[in-house]
Amino acid sequence: MREFLLAVYERLFAHFGPRHWWPAETPFEVIVGAILTQNVAWKGAAQAIANLKEKGWLAPRALLEAPEEELAALVRPARYHRQKAQRLKDFCRVVVEECGGDLEVLLKQDVAPLRQRLLSIRGIGPETADSIILYAAEKPVFVIDAYTHRIFHRLGIFPARARYAEMQAFFMRHLPLDVKLFNEYHAQLDALGHHLCLKRAPRCGECPVLSFCKNAATNPREPYCGRM
Ligand code: SF4
Hints:
- This protein has 13 helices and no strands.
- It has 228 residues and is mainly α.
- This is DNA-3-methyladenine glycosylase III.
């Protein structure tokens, strides 16, 4: 299985090239982005981050002290703006009140306690917590998202219904615990899911892992699919 997973990775990397994730200048910006991109495309989150930067609020204490209405207005491009403004404040409250405003104090913890603390913050679920751990704290956890499940279901690895923890354990059991690999692998899956392995009409004819894909041979919606 390790060879298979690495072969998938290598095909994706050769096709899409390095993805340079996460698109952020600081670990705090990674975290703000991870919260703002929940349930929305990255474009909206990026615009919201640009608004926060312009206002000079892209820092834990500034966000915590920001007037709620004004903050919600700035993050409106990321949708669910009131809820997300509150989530940003909830996270920043932990940094300010428990870590003296120093994000590094939070992020330097070992993976297990860090993950537990992140998951205890309202609005931070497994995908967001793991994105923070991998891309902001730079510790080796594999991030699972809807694309990961869809792609590996179509490849014949995951069932139609699969739990987050089981999928994550699968990757972490079979791959070396390597931050750079996990970083790039998740980014490559995002590229495949976003551009080719689409929900309704996957573009299998252009897919670099077509020859590995069980679904491609049988998917009735994709008549041009076949094994290479
Ligand atoms: S061959 Fe098609 S269904 Fe299979 S992973 Fe590629 S795009 Fe998705």
